[in-house]
Amino acid sequence: MLTLSINGADLQVDVPEDMPLLWVLRDVLGLTGTKYGCGIAQCGACTVHLDGVAARACVLPVGSVGQRKVVTIEAMKEHPLGQRLQQAWLEDEVVQCGYCQPGQIMSAVALLAQNPAPDDQAIDLGMAGNLCRCCTYTRIRSAIKRVAQA
Ligand code: FES
Ligand code: FES
């Protein structure tokens, strides 16, 4: 039995330690906002925060999480930066199919938490691990700038 800090709550899960965190979030805890894309740390769809740092939940064995605080897209509605970014996403009409967007927002929150005024290069670098098949990159950058400049 493992105890995990998920979105501010201590939760106990009875799972193998080598199960990826993404499976625990989606299939055990029902937190389906975090998406499965590639499963090999290449697309960013599964991005969550571990102690505020963006991490790929698809390749992270749950047994390695330890005491670190896991935060998922579900918590962004109460996160100051998450709220502002989601509003900017709406204002810039970023989303197309939407599948990659939870991961995009999680990476954007982690980026702005670390660098509140990123230039284009810093945005591209910070968001480089998140792919979008619908090519919403230009609007994502615009939405991040909207929050950074506010
Ligand atoms: S599903 Fe984790 S990086 Fe693609
Ligand atoms: S909005 Fe469709 S994959 Fe990004």
What features would you describe in this structure?
- The chain has 150 residues and is an alpha+beta fold.
- The protein folds into 2 domains: 72 residues, Roll (Ubiquitin-like (UB roll)), CATH 3.10.20.30; 74 residues, [2Fe-2S]-binding domain (DNA polymerase, domain 1), CATH 1.10.150.120.
- The chain contains 5 helices and 5 strands; from the N terminus they run E-E-H-E-E-E-H-H-H-H.
- A 5-stranded mixed beta sheet has the order 2-1-5-3-4, with helices on both faces.
- 40% of the residues are buried.
- The chain binds FE2/S2 (inorganic) cluster (2 copies).
- One FE2/S2 (inorganic) cluster binds next to loops.
Question: What is this entry, summarized?
Answer:
With 150 residues, the protein is of the alpha+beta class. It is built from 5 helices and 5 strands, in the order E-E-H-E-E-E-H-H-H-H.
Structure keywords:
150 residues; alpha+beta; Ubiquitin-like (UB roll); DNA polymerase, domain 1; 2 domains
